[in-house]
Amino acid sequence: MQNITASFFKADGKGFLLIGLLCFAVFSPVLFADFKGMDDDFSIVSNADLRSPANLPRIFTSGYFKSRDYYRPLPNVSYMAEYQAFGLTPFFYNLDNILLHILSAWLVFLLAGLLLDDRRKAWWASLIFAVHPLQWEAVGNISGRSILLCAVFVLGAFILFLKYLREKKPGLLYGAALCFGLGLLCKESAGVLVLVIALYMLLT
Predict the structure, then answer these.
(1) Of 121, 126, 163, 194, whose CB is crowded by the most CB atoms within 10 A?
(2) What is the 3-state secondary structure of the chain?
(3) When comparing pLDDT for 118 and 25, which is higher?
(4) How much is the pLDDT for 19?
(5) Which of 81, 95, 93 is nearest to 41 (CA)?
(6) Taking Cα atoms as reference points, which of 84, 76, 99 lies closest to residue 23?
(7) Sorting pLDDT into bands at 50, 70 and 90, what band is 17?
(8) Residue 42 near residue 78 (C-beta atoms within 8 A)
(9) What is the pLDDT of residue 138?
């Protein structure tokens, strides 16, 4: 078993591929789920703003649930793109959720590799993140898109920031700031990254 496991770490490509395959296998049952009530109906099925790209400015000037409580325009932009391409076929919305979660797992692989400096431990950390049942609510509900997109951008921002600390290239810092800003346009909890970075700087 140890030799088989070690073979997966001869190249990062194999590690990424295996994480993606296992993650897809675990969450593939959601592909055939229909839109769910309440959030999905309000955000997608009955959302007239998705019907035309001309409504894009309206998405950026209104709340996620047509209120001032949540400002999350990028998830709605993703729904609009899916609606224009696939109409109201839930299979593709569910597929995109799975692909976004796989992307997050790959980013966890990269982030853990930077923090631990050990690709094997990084791989196991990303696998646990990828297939843990805690992820089911975000991946299994199309309206969990805000969580998935936020995770992608926040993880990307942290990775770029860590690389900036090592390489001192301004472009990396600008990229981190851009990803952080995009994360805030997905879900307000992206703001926690500021505290995470402050804690990292304090400890290291």
Answers:
(1) 126
(2) CHHHHHHCCCCHHHHHHHHHHHHHHHHHHHHHCCCCCCHHHHHHHCCHHHHCHHHHHHHCCCCCCCCCCCCCHHHHHHHHHHHHHHCCCHHHHHHHHHHHHHHHHHHHHHHHHHHHCCHHHHHHHHHHHHHCHHHHHHHHCHHHHHHHHHHHHHHHHHHHHHHHHHHCCHHHHHHHHHHHHHHHCCCHHHHHHHHHHHHHHHHC
(3) 25
(4) 95
(5) 93
(6) 99
(7) very high
(8) no
(9) 93
Who wins on pLDDT, 194 or 43? 194
Residue 8 in this model has a pLDDT that exceeds 70:
no
Q: Give, in order, the Cα–Cα distances in Å from 52 to each of 3, 61, 123, 183, 187.
A: 54, 16, 42, 24, 23
| Token pair 């951008």 in the structure block, residue | 153
Residue 124 identity:
W
How remote is the C-alpha of 183 from its chain's centroid? 9
Nearest CA-CA partner of 101 in 28, 165, 42: 28
Q: How confident is the model at residue 1 (pLDDT cuts 50, 70, 90)?
A: very low
Which residues have C-beta within 8 Å of that of residue 187, sequence separation ≥ 6?
72, 146, 147, 149, 150
Would you state the structure tokens that stand for residue 144, as one six-digit string?
Answer: 């969990």
